[in-house]
Fold this protein.
Amino acid sequence: MFIRSVDAISEFTGKLSAWSLFAIGLFITYEIIMRYVFNAPTIWVDEVSRILQVWVVYVSGSYVLKHREMVTIEVVFRDPTSLSRKLAGTFALLFMFVFAGTAAFYGFDLWLKSTLAGHTTDTYLAPPKMLTHAPVWLGCVLLILQGIAEIIRIWTVGIPDDDILDRQH
Amino acid sequence: METFLILSALVALLVVRTPVAFALGGLGVILLAFKGLPMVAVPQRLHGSMDSFELLAVPMFLLMSNVLLRGGVGRDLYAAVQGWVGHWPGGLGVATIISCTLFSAISGSSVATAATIGTVAIPEMTKRGYERPFVLGMLAAGGTLGILIPPSIPLIVYGVITESSIPTLFLAGVGPGLFLAFAFIVYGVVFSKYSSAYQQVAKVGWSEKWRVTYVAMPVVVLAAGVIGSIYAGIATPSESAGLGFIFSLILTFSMGRMDWAKLKESVEASLRTTVMVLLIIAGAKVFSYAITLYLIPQHISTLLVENISTPGLFVLAVGVVLLIIGFFLESLSMLLIMVPVLLPAVLNAGIDPIWFGIFFVVLIETALITPPVGMNLFIIQAVGKARLHEVARGAVPFAIIMLCTAALLWFWQDLALYIPYQLMR
């Protein structure tokens, strides 16, 4: 139940992020058309695209972890069924918690302070920091949840064999 | 001692298969904690590292190349080039390298280039009796042109982390990229001349030549338009990549090569690669912040400056280190770990950072085709349904050509710098 719920959340955020990238492509094209055809450059495309990029990268980290597409160095522990590989996989995910946990904890603190103080960014659009600073901690929380699901998966269903063709970037 | 321990810890984490992004980020966090520094710097660095319009070029170029890849552009390019040069001695090898060069002008990724052209060229070349290790090695090496000929994702990343001009880096990649393509072609022709096994392809008629060229032409025009718009000052690299993505969609839909399922695949594949690449950058940002506070780049710089007296020896030492690291590290990780460490020493030695970026990418290219960790070897192994040692054996002569090119770059720096500094000034 836990694994299925976490997987579903990661799939949803991943797919939403994928189409957000598509939207950024449309925004950028719109900006160029407005600049050269209508001589009326926009004031929002640059900033909205950057905000979206931050959201996309952090909230879909869990989706990429679920799809096992994080870059790892595959020199040793190649046999997915061996105990050493399972232990290495578990250690790697626990180490990820050090990074994601710190970023989530301090990121949330930072976000909460900015939100309570009603801070905005010092840019032209001045969006609230509540919006711009949320993806880091939120994405790291999702990463931790997906990491727990992956650890459970390692010790229940096992590690799937890596398929290099899935990585035709 | 501190430097040695930190670098050893990083190596240990990577060896136990910790994802590179988290090995860098996690180690950065631990180093900051040891110094008792405020941890709020971690989320701040993570946010700041992605809040960059320049980095948007990465997902936009990936979207463009994924759409074109699934639109069957590789087949069109190969057919067109084969129509013109396929009947030459070793003509399919020539066609393969030219197709890789053309696809490199669309895609910033070596893996995408190797996979796209490999899918078409490997069956065609092996059917004509070309030796399998030669074919596989040629595709693995040809694919690496994707990261030297603009656009190039590693050059975008290098530009962002060293604050160098991305358009200048792109221009500097053109000379060495074309030189390498030419060297691969020469090797291919010479190899075929002494190989009796392959059958030469029959010359095709003019009408067929023009037909295949007509089919491939829109893609070539698109690639030229995307790169041209950067240098004409019309758009930034991110903008031209975004525009290229939308035009590639229009193109593939109008050719009847794109549907909802392929579009969904393209968008999701682009996201996965984007996040994979950009999370490493985010982790590297935290790591490089931490090692800067520990003065590690300065220690390494001092060590190199004290022990190595001339820039030539310095470049040789760096080249050897990168070559060794390249056996084990994936290309982008190599860039993100080593550049922040080496950059101060590079600047101290009076080396042009644009030149160093190109030199670094040529060594990354070599790393991509050297075992045990050579991404292009794995891709060609999978695409060509081959054994790894078969691909690696075929790639050896190409790796030697790349190393000779890296050496040549030092003695003839204008190979990289003439176009950005003289021709386009």
